[in-house]
Amino acid sequence: MRKITALQVQKRNPNRVNVHLDGEYAFSLARIVAAWLQVGQTLDEEKLSQLQADDARERAMQQAMLFLSYRARSEQEIRQNLSKHEIPDAVIEETLERLRQSGLANDKNFANAWVENRNTFRPRGRRALTLELRQKGIDDSIIESVLEDLDEDVLAYEAGQKKASKLRVQEWSEFRKKLSDFLARRGFSYSVIAPIVSRLWSELHAEGEEKIYDNEEIL
What we know:
With 219 residues, the protein is α+β, with helices and mostly antiparallel strands. It is 58% helix and 11% strand. The chain has 10 helices and 4 strands; from the N terminus they run E-E-E-H-E-H-H-H-H-H-H-H-H-H. It has a 4-stranded antiparallel beta sheet. The N and C termini lie far apart (79 Å).
């Protein structure tokens, strides 16, 4: 048995308490975990181990909530962040299960939000979105479901409008190459890019004499 000889709130982090046993610093605990402790109380090894396990779970949850406060995260991102903060693997998995049950960890919702954000602010094609979601650890079945109704023609047109306006003074060949390269980097396929480039050129030069055909090869 070991006796608690001091409980001190940390100056730099008032949410943690330093625990002294038998006159020496032993470990720190989250304030909520240490709330029931008192100076003079004796603890056996089982109780000490339980306290530190409870603290690890509390620390993991607090770190996860902080990480999630900035934006939605995939489970892989949460797992990597907790690992970076030296949370034990078993505690990480337990924390993820708690987050799933509370709806704070849901890869389907995350994927939907990610695609919606991209479509609104930075449209990308199916290929680019698939790669991004895979990098976030999203399962292929979820990716397929989320991207099932993606309208790449609309997205490519929206993505290309601003770029096309900047290229309007270019000759057709240069316009086509630069805009096609831009859309390709955004993950759109040739079959989507070709008609969109022609459409944007035609709209920018509606009164000109240039006639562009959708099946013209993109150089």
